[in-house]
Design a protein that fits this description.
The protein is mostly helical. The chain is built from 19 helices and two strands. Helix 6 (82-95) packs across helix 16 (338-349) and helix 11 (206-235) packs antiparallel against helix 17.
């Protein structure tokens, strides 16, 4: 087992090395420039579409199973999870406060990546044997590129099917069990069984039930966590300017060892900031477009504008709350890491309740991540084996929850992190090859909007 772990660790060091960071940031920068900064400039249009997309449209020509709002909530249910609480803390522990700056950079260019993913997902989606719309990297590789690239789609589906059991299932269940045991004294076995039952009840209802649950839980928990985090920041308001300066300066200069912090080089800040940023917001990973492919929408670009908000909300908002709370409270010097570090930061400003806030938020975020990723991995398995594999997959997914809750997962964390990178590679290659289509559709969409406005129509942006 040690030999296998060492082998996977070696692969992990390579796939998350300089080439991967250049590929992720490079593709994001290329798409951002190719779209003429549209994802940043048009973020307001995205929020307006999100608001109007809360209610499914009834027009017959609109294809899809879930509303644009619930498609984003399903995507966010998978992205807002342990990465926002434990992942940010780990990035700061390993790379220093400057890691947060590189997470922001990853998110800003990641908005263009997420936009392009959703555009391609809706543009090249299919209808399966059950009449449901399916899409994602494997489908836009299959339907958008020539047959010589088909193996890339198969590779993505293979890595996605297995990665989900790590990043989207056992790792999340383990994080919930650990947080609940630490704060409430409940044994991991009981937590695992409760989660197994709840996940099973939701999962058997398919994408519509997953989306309905996500559409209710995700906004409530996001508001709860953000509000609690803002309270922490307000109570340390005088430290915010210095904290911001420290984040910027340590992004470009090494941080010396002090307190319980072991010190970090600039390369560590970049590597762990980008890697944990991708782990959190999944821009470039290729997972989110699988959910957006099921959205009820007339135009791929309209759903792309909604999709890009996922990266903004996940990293620029939620991760920043966590990161600033850790830095302004001084908790980053404690030597703690993971969710324990975030709990310490919240408890310093909210004594007696801060650790419970983090435990509850982590539990709900991780639970919804299990739901969102179940859909992602299911569609990867379906692509490889057909609709007949859906029910057996769901049974395996539910059974894996209590196993993850009660097991030691150091190796699973490592394997999941490695498989994430293996998913990203075929997806990023496909986005580069399909970028002319994304640019063309986007240009046409906004040209049509401009034309409609000149005619005095009320077509929403």
């Amino acid at each position: 087992m040690d030999s296998i772990a060492n082998f996977v660790a070696a692969i992990n060091g390579f796939v998350w090395g300089l080439p991967m960071l250049v590929l992720i940031l490079g593709v994001g920068i290329y798409l951002t420039l190719g779209l003429k900064l549209m994802p940043i400039v048009k973020i307001g249009a995205g929020f307006r579409l999100l608001w109007t997309g809360r209610i499914p449209e009834k027009e017959e020509e609109i294809k899809g199973e879930i509303s644009p709002f619930n498609a984003l909530m399903t995507s966010l249910s998978a992205t807002i999870g342990t990465g926002n609480i434990a992942g940010v803390a780990t990035a700061i522990f390993l790379g220093g406060p400057g890691a947060l700056f590189w997470m922001w950079c990853t998110a800003l260019v990641g908005m263009a990546t997420k936009f392009a993913e959703a555009v391609c997902a809706v543009r090249y989606r299919e209808t399966d044997a059950k009449g449901n719309h399916v899409g994602g990297p494997m489908y836009y590789i299959k339907n958008g590129l020539s047959s010589k690239w088909a193996w890339l789609g198969t590779a993505f589906a293979f890595f996605g099917a297995f990665a989900g059991f790590g990043i989207g299932n056992t790792v999340q269940a383990n994080s919930v069990a650990a947080a609940v045991e630490s704060s409430f004294g409940l044994s991991p076995a009981i937590s695992g069984l409760v989660m197994m039952v709840l996940v099973g009840l939701v999962l058997m209802g398919g994408i519509k039930r997953i989306a309905d649950v996500a559409g209710k839980l995700v906004p409530l928990m996001a508001v709860f966590y953000i509000t609690s985090g803002l309270i922490v920041l307000i109570m340390n308001i005088s430290a915010i300017p210095a904290a911001f300066g420290l984040i910027i300066s340590s992004a470009f200069t090494p941080v010396a060892a002090q307190g319980g912090f072991a010190g970090a080089a600039v390369w560590a800040a970049i590597r762990f900031g980008v890697a944990r940023g991708i782990f959190s917001n999944e821009a470039g990973l290729g997972s989110a477009p699988i959910a957006h492919a099921a959205a009820q929408t007339k135009n791929p670009v309209a759903q792309g504008l909604v999709a890009m908000l996922g990266t903004f909300i996940d990293t620029i908002v939620v991760c920043s709350i966590t990161g600033f709370a850790i830095v302004v409270s001084g908790a980053w010097l404690s030597g703690e890491t993971g969710s324990a570090l975030t709990s310490l930061a919240f408890a310093s400003a909210l004594p007696g309740i801060g650790n419970y806030v983090v435990a509850i938020a982590l539990s709900i975020f991780a639970f919804t991540t299990i739901l969102g990723w179940s859909f992602y991995s299911e569609k990867c398995v379906q692509y490889l084996l057909g609709v007949k594999a859906i029910v057996p997959f769901r049974v395996l997914w539910v059974v894996a929850v209590p196993i993850g809750a009660t097991s030691s997962l150091e190796f699973i964390w490592l394997l999941a992190d490695t498989l994430n990178a293996m998913m990203a590679i075929p997806n990023l290659i496909a986005l580069l090859l399909l970028s002319p289509v994304v640019f063309k559709l986007t240009k046409e969409y906004f040209a049509d909007l401009a034309q409609e406005k000149t005619k005095g129509t009320d077509k929403p942006e």
